[in-house]
Amino acid sequence: MVKPKVGFYSLTGCQGEYLTILGMEDSLLDLLSLVEVVEFKLASSVELPVSVDVAFVEGSVSTKKDLEYLEEIRRKSGTLVALGNCAVWGGIQASTTGTDWKDLMRSVYGTDENLYGFLGEHKGLSEVVQVDYELQGCPIEGREFTELLVDLVRGVRPVLPDYPVCVECKLREIPCLIVERGLPCLGPITVAGCDARCPSYDTACIGCRGPLRDEANVSGELETLLKRGYDRKTLIDLMSMFGARYGEVAKLVAGR
After folding, report:
1. Which residues on adjacent β-strands are paired with residue 211?
2. Whole-model pTM?
3. Does the chain have fewer CB atoms within 10 Å around its N or its C terminus?
């Protein structure tokens, strides 16, 4: 049986997704034995300039180099998977959307010069190229990655969560942190898949898995939390930490 060729590529990010994968010590070798890895810089110096059946990409599109690299990856891959919040929504760095890039350069490097070919904003992959699947999270869940990779190897269309964290709270019978304690929980607008980890520890969801694409009711969440006494700026800052590129959140950021 010919194994599918797989590449793991990085743009602007912390590589937390790949640290998660490499940390799956009990299953990693069995999992990777299903494929032929042609590039995985965090794990190996091997780099084969060949087309791949599946390209996993983490990090945001932030520089001209990122953009050109991603377009090359898209051309040479059959299936492209965005891994993690940076690749899906631009990551925490996208919370600077709308800020003049020169102000960012001055605040970090003390210069107006564009040192790294910065594009002026941090984008998710789907804003630039066609993406076949998105695995959200900051970082991703190892269990979800395993299921996705196995499905792709078997030729099965992966099924990813299309419902909010609130559903997982209900299934685990976790009391609603907004209703019961008045906490600014983003579970209603955040895509599930973490098994409601933070709410299970009585901690409000901060939305690290990113918004539920095309379905997150941001205005409803904002109205609910404003009625609980939270100020608008605090709530928009919270929502934009991992979801600044989501349509409704972007409008709130632009209008404040």
Report:
1. 190
2. 0.94
3. N
Spell out a b/e string for 243-253, using b for 16 or more CB atoms within 10 Å of the CB, else e: bbbbebbbebb
Taking the mean position of all CA atoms in its chain, how far away is CA 208?
Answer: 8
CA-based radius of gyration for the chain: 19
Dist. CA 148–CA 231, nearest whole Å: 39
pLDDT of 1 strictly over 80:
no
Sign for the CA dihedral angle at 243, 245, 246, 248 comes to: positive
User: Within 10 Å of residue 49's Cβ, how many Cβ atoms?
Assistant: 8
Contact predicate 200/175, CB 8 Å? no
Per the DSSP assignment, residues forming a β-bridge with 56 are: 8, 81
Element spanning 8, H or E: strand 5-10
21 Cβ contact list (under 8 Å, min separation 6) = 8, 28, 142, 145
Task: Using alpha carbons, select from 214, 208, 215 the residue that is nearest to residue 141.
Answer: 208
CA–CA separation, 213 and 226 (whole Å)? 23
Residues whose CB falls within 8 Å of the CB of residue 28, separated by 6 or more in sequence, listed in order: 21, 22
Beta strands in 124-253 (DSSP E): 133-135
Instruction: State mean pLDDT over 64-81.
Output: 97
SS3 92: helix
For residues 244-250, average pLDDT: 95
Q: How far apart are the C-alpha atoms of 38 and 7, rounded to whole Å?
A: 5
pLDDT-derived band at 36, boundaries 50, 70, 90: very high
